[in-house]
Batch of 2 targets.
Target 1
Amino acid sequence: MSDIGFIGLGIMGRQMAQHLIDAGHKLFLHDIGPLPQPLLDRGGQAGKSSEEVTRQSEIIITMVPDTPNVDAALFGAGGVAAGLSPGKIVVDMSSISPLATKEFARKINALGCDYLDAPVSGGEVGAKQASLTIMVGGPERAFEKVKPLFDLMGKNVTLVGGNGDGQTTKVANQIIVALTIEAVAEALLFASKAGADPAKVRAALMGGFASSRILELHGERMIQRRFDPGFRIELHQKDLNLALQGARTLGIALPNTASTQQLFNTAEANGGKAWDHSGLVKVLELMAGGHEVAQHGNAGQLLD
Ligand code: NAD
């Protein structure tokens, strides 16, 4: 059993930390907001700062929203770096910039510690069910030590390469997810406007070549009009920004990533930055003169 620091206990972090506690590990918790009571009730220890949590732990995990938040948690006042001693391992499971990640890793390595970037895919459902996909960058020796913890939180755990490669893989993942959500939204809008029941269309397509987790989960949300997050549009804008910035640096075009980002921006302009990313369908509905996907369908009776 290990002593583990867990920093950032929002939608994802609280579920992931729960699995580690349930497996018998001792967890030291810190968040700039209130800590989830269920974790404290199950024996999680509250820490006043990331530094304090780091002093008490061998492995320190961060799960915060964006690159500046990881920077603050690691290197800000009372941050992880101030509490590190050689041999500890820092594991960032947030989805952030691959470039900044390489710099963070260098600074942590200079303190005698290994760094792993280990962003996840699978959403809140995957976090709850411990079925996350975990994409890891960093040295193999650190990966082998942390792998048993990854296995408690996820099912598909891959060491992709060196530091930054985990985050690069996650950006690639987010391109596929965004463009697939957009495709599912267009397809359901088309079917509904044509007079077909979108719930039945979705059920029919689930058996075929167009089936996907996104048609299943996000398609269901679009039909049932459930846009509470989940994964907020503002977080997906952050990820596509990383893709588009990277594309500029690399001198390549990502045309459909760019157009999907414009649709997310339109959602934000209409008050939707905190909607679940399946809310992208609402932008297409606006463009269709206000026709809603669920309008002609039977939203209450989805066939699984
Ligand atoms: P969230 O906003 O619900 O949770 C983040 C938590 O971090 C919050 O509780 C916040 O108070 C805390 N925090 C922020 N800055 C901090 C700091 N400096 N020190 C300590 N705590 C700090 O976000 P989330 O949905 O849990 O996402 C976390 C990360 O996981 C993001 O990078 C996101 O892109 C990624 N992700 C999210 C999902 C999802 O479905 N929600 C899926 C895969 C990956």
Target 2
Amino acid sequence: MLKPVNSFENAKRQLDLVVPLLLNDYQDKKRLNRAIRLLKKPQNILKKKLNLKLDNGKKRSYQSFRIQYNDARGPFKGGIRFHQNVTEDEIKALSFWMSIKCAVVNIPYGGSKGGIIVDPTKLNLRELERLTKQYANFLTPYIGPWRDIPAPDVNTNGQVMAWMLEIFEKRKRHHSPATFTGKPIELGGSEGREEATGRGGVYILQAYLKSKKINHKKIKLAIQGFGNVGYWFAKFAFNADFKIVAISDVSGGVINTAGLNIDELKKLHAKFGCLKEVSSMTNYKFIENKDLLELPVDLLVPAALENAITKENINKIKAKFILEMANGPTTSDADEILKSNKIDLIPDVLANSGGVTVSYFEWIQNLHGYKWTKERVNNELKETITKAFGDIQEVVLEKKITYREATFYLAVKRIIDAMILRGRV
Ligand code: NAD
């Protein structure tokens, strides 16, 4: 797969693309330009080399980052990833997109992101704990429930949040669970957080189909990805009677034009380890990932990784619409082609915002020292995310623009309005 040259350049280009749409909203064009210039830079870039002594006595050092992009609408909010390919520009782009995502779904947060350049599979659990705790020690003065709220991202999880919480609270000498989201339930995590991104994606899909008056029983879906997002999205879509004809993981996928049983597949996946193995050990028919993307389905759901839909394969994609559940699965050139072919694409910052929405509910629960039931979490998620879709849909219809353009337009406008109200520009 081709990687974009630089995801932050991509992000800034997305910002530039909405400027013409904003011109009518602001009489003072100089002020608008000043706001856009400010939005092209993060507010704070925090960096530190972390030194780790491995269990074998060797010393290693790892570059870490926290980039706080914009907090005009509320405290910074964003995940932390541990990955060998982390770069400063990638974290900048992801922190910008978090600012957009929180504004789209209209929750009172800005955006941030953090990361360590490390391959966590090369560390044992004790080493990972020591590295995480050092990172938390570095971040402690810059985070907090009203300042910056980290969460898990690629290769981090509730355990990593628990280690960070321990260091933060020790140094502050008081409890502060609302500083982190995505925590284990035992330490103040929310019911429903694990499956929230997939569940939210199905709510968005249902809202889209309703707006187009499409009967969900008449459409066929192909899903790329069978991890947290792909599996839960598939599970809720399956429960809601959607026909999923193909689904894949990194090893490849399985296909059945009559519809797959996701519950059965999940069990087989757990038994055999990957979908390729499932197909070789059972009578499920195998499909390569590349071919899954090009199936003649109604809806394609990339839910695995970035840059799955590119200039190279876009003309072979036959889906009538696309729901981006992964972050950044479509390159900007492919996006242009979809636009000219009038294929609807529901963008990642809207489609996968269920995760950060339930993180927001976790924060609210922690601030109140109160626990919501799963039912309440799910109802509030449905209400919040369906409203976000409705807001975008209104802009799409009024301005006759794509869902991605409408999403960025609305989010950037909300951020700029907050910056103006605060007198930052
Ligand atoms: P995950 O690691 O749980 O799952 C990733 C899945 O993608 C796995 O099934 C893996 O086998 C598959 N995969 C990897 N490479 C592939 C390839 N080349 N072809 C096909 N499948 C491949 O990750 P996740 O949490 O499900 O995240 C998936 C995407 O969704 C990422 O882009 C992530 O940033 C985004 N996202 C996740 C959340 C969340 O709450 N987990 C929220 C918002 C966005």
